């Protein structure tokens, strides 16, 4: 079975969001999915919500909706009803769970946001009951807006374990514990506007970058916070095995990797848009690069799918126009490609 997960479309923001989402719909349907799952954040206005539902009403496949925090902002999620929309369904012998974690918060000076994320007791009990009758070998897909396992709060300088978190889910570990007995599980998330793919005791954690990227600030050229082009995730489940790929909105864009520079520190990286900690990246004549540790102080405001080049590496490639890369994903898929190499200032200039 094949389906598509897309998230954070933020319609009617800035430039070309309607054109961009039309392209997104066409591009997703070209993969011939059996269904679509929207990870939340349709937009910040009622008009954006109405526009979204008008745009998807003629689609030939069903579309399932996860509540994001901006559904509270746009009025489509009534604060008193938040947390009441968890549900599940089976399709092609796969168990799908839409898990509702966003809740309303009355803003204060210390907590200016009007949302937080929690796996509360009511929903945990519902999930335990829902999963009780599912065979352990049946694939399980759970979608919630905010990731159930994430390094984002640490990397972006926020307090981890805050009482009403805005970038992590309170008691997320209890959700993961309910999922661990199953042989093939993936959780799908958005919210962070970046890709972050890793495993927790065999569970695939698939946080996916935003269709809107940087809120459509430059239309279809609005990269996500970690430099990923705007896109969506295609998930295939065959013989119980779950595999996915990140697909960019525009076919002409690189689908795999690009150069990335952190300007304020003059650090340079290979940005493999959908790498996991097990992904290997090799540069011809340099060798294997190491992935970043997302919980190191040196990775603040950086993505875990960046691979850093040392000062010696930069000196070695300073006169090169392109770099030859080999990217080996954990499923054995191997890709060879060339990316443009920026010009480097010489020390004697």
How would you describe the overall organization of this protein?
The protein has seven helices and 20 strands. It is of the alpha/beta class and 349 residues long. It is 17% helix and 28% strand.
Summary tags:
349 residues; alpha/beta; Immunoglobulin-like; 6-stranded mixed beta sheet; 5-stranded mixed beta sheet
Distance between the termini: 57 Å
On the 0-100 scale, what is the average pLDDT? 94
Largest sheet: 6 strands, mixed
Helix content: 10-25%
The CATH superfamily of the largest domain appears as: Metallo-dependent phosphatases
Strand tally is: 20
Instruction: Please indicate the count of domains.
Output: 2
What strand order characterises the main sheet?
4-5-8-9-11-10
How would you summarize this macromolecular structure in one to three sentences?
The chain has 349 residues and is α/β, with parallel strands linked by helices.
Compile the SSE list and pairings.
Blueprint: E1 2-6, H1 17-29, E2 35-38, H2 46-56, E3 63-65, H3 70-73, E4 87-91, E5 94-98, E6 102-104, E7 115-117, H4 121-132, E8 140-143, H5 152-155, H6 172-179, E9 185-189, E10 196-200, E11 203-207, E12 231-238, E13 241-248, E14 257-262, E15 267-272, E16 280-283, E17 287-289, E18 306-308, H7 311-317, E19 322-328, E20 334-340
Parallel strand pairs: 1-2, 2-3, 5-8, 8-9, 9-11
Antiparallel strand pairs: 1-12, 4-5, 6-7, 10-11, 12-13, 14-15, 15-18, 16-17, 16-19, 19-20
